[in-house]
Amino acid sequence: MKRWLSKNLIKVYAFLAFVYLFIPIAYTMAFSFNNAGKSNLTWRGFTFANWQNPCGAPQVCNALGNSLKIGGISTLIATILGTMIAFALGRHRFRGRSSVNLLIFLPMATPEIVLGASLLAMFLNLGINPGFWPTVIAHVMFCISFVVVTVKARIASLDPKLEEAAMDLYATEAETFRRVTLPLVMPGIFGAALLAFSLSFDDFIITNFNSGTLTTFPKFVYISSARGIPPQANVIGSTMFILALAIVLTGQFVSNRKNRV
Amino acid sequence: MAFVAAVSKRSSVVRGIKRPSTPYLLLIPGLAWLAMFFIFPLINLAGTSTQTPGDSGEVGVYVQTFRFANYIDAFSGARDQFLRSFFFAFIATVLALAISYPLAYAIAFKSGKWKNLLLVLVVAPFFTSFLLRTVAWKQILGNEGPVVAVLKFLHILGPQSGLTASAFAVVTGMTYNFLPFMTLPLYASLERIDPRTLEASSDLYANGITTFRKVTFPLSLPGVVAGTLLTFIPAAGDYINATLLGNPRTKMIGNVIESRFFDIVDYPTAAALSFMLMAAILIMVMVYVRRAGTEELV
């Protein structure tokens, strides 16, 4: 027993770490089935009612809709702008390269509260009221850097011989890009878009500063946390978890299949 | 190996020279966005930080007087929260490193064909909302939750005491919430280690501990640096954990900036505090990165 433990100590430790990681998830999922009544703080019996009517709590689906809209628009813009920068950095030599790298790094090294406060101060000075579009602008701003880093890593991992082969076979530069480079970089762009969406969807601090009276899903949870969040929010959180997990596992499965062929 | 890398690098350089305007065209839209909505707001905030209340005495109206003493006033008013923020962030970072390193090590070296699945499982909890996870901790550790009940049953906790609304709960929440930022870079640098270097070490009669100390850990240092930074920076600026899991005596600098901005409408102090937070973090990052000797972060 003692020998087994010392041999597998690190595996036991990793298992415990996974248990720790999943405690709040298990809790959130379990309480999505709580027959909560007025307070979702304690367990009051099992029910499917929350799953049958996820919009049952006032405002929750309105907040979810806002988060999805903001996330979708911000992801689209940030992915396009970030991918362009990633190609410039990954495929070209030019002057001012290190300044560009610094400019990409800085937003990631700046605390969210500073990003949020500085943007709001500027919007107020310009007479722009916080709300939907200021929030989108803010989300695009902090997502760009993460897109650049993700896509750049993918570009750096490409074998340049594949593009050289295309050129050797008389493909023009544009054809090579469209038929060889872009398809190879696509998984990186897709991953970056997923990351941007989850960052945007999950953001609270910057959103809280720039959204005014607009409620997003994290803001809804924050506001209602004082009295225990309604079980419908647990339903939505659990659904997001299952959806994201399914997307990632499907992606892994597909890329495994492709590698085998 | 090195020769091939050098050659392929050369060829991509050659290709890049063809049309010198292309990179700039690709950069302009994204960089313009960052200039307008990241750099310009920071400059604007620098201006706000030296303003003073206008003569009219109206709430929220300030005029530019270049009063740099604002910084001293702001700091002396929030010194405790500043120090607490860095202290909490430091403890959370150390705890996250202690939890993540063995986990990343196990995934990188001991997981075999389960590697990819385990990696997904590390990130998976973070597919639910940050706020939901923190609220879940609040209720798990709360007075009506299971942990307190067990501890009270075992008489570890007195009948009147609890776990939430405490520094302990705030640090617990912070450690949990930033964990993947630690685990993923650690895994990335551990995974890159060539197993042959570890075999070479044991061939030279190093035992497991020596191999770890002299080979594995030094080679994983870039991951340690990246992970600690990615954990420390958001932790120092966070105020959600302090709000949901803490009490008035665990307020962090983020709480002060937020309330200066929204409750008191004292923009200059909020701006000065924001700048001091940013400067403090950037200085720490630079000193730390230089001492750790890794320049490649992005």
Automatic annotation (TrEMBL), chain A:
Query: What is one Gene Ontology biological process annotated in the Swiss-Prot or TrEMBL record?
Result: transmembrane transport
State the annotated membrane topology for this chain. Answer: Multi-pass membrane protein
Q: Which residues cross the membrane?
A: 12-33, 70-90, 102-126, 132-151, 180-201, 235-254
GO CC annotation terms, alphabetical = plasma membrane
- Keywords (A to Z) from UniProt: Cell membrane, Membrane, Transmembrane, Transmembrane helix, Transport
Looking at the Swiss-Prot or TrEMBL record, what is one Pfam family this protein matches? Answer: BPD_transp_1
Q: What is this protein called?
A: Unannotated protein
Organism, per UniProt? Answer: freshwater metagenome
UniProtKB/TrEMBL annotation, chain B:
Chief location category:
membrane
Return the InterPro entries for the record.
MetI-like (IPR000515), MetI-like_sf (IPR035906)
Matches recorded under Pfam families: BPD_transp_1 (PF00528)
The record's subcellular locations are: Cell membrane
Q: Does the record's keyword annotation contain Hydrolase?
A: no
PROSITE patterns from the UniProt entry: ABC_TM1
Per UniProt, the keywords (alphabetical) are: Cell membrane, Membrane, Transmembrane, Transmembrane helix, Transport
Asked whether the UniProt record includes Hydrolase among its keywords, one would answer: no
Any one GO CC term of this protein is: plasma membrane
Q: How does it sit in the membrane?
A: Multi-pass membrane protein
Q: Which GO terms describe its biological process?
A: transmembrane transport
Write down the PANTHER family for this protein, in alphabetical order.
Answer: INNER MEMBRANE ABC TRANSPORTER PERMEASE PROTEIN YDCU-RELATED, INNER MEMBRANE ABC TRANSPORTER PERMEASE PROTEIN YDCU-RELATED-RELATED
Q: Which family does it belong to?
A: Belongs to the binding-protein-dependent transport system permease family. CysTW subfamily.
The protein depicted here goes by the name: Unannotated protein
Biological source species: freshwater metagenome
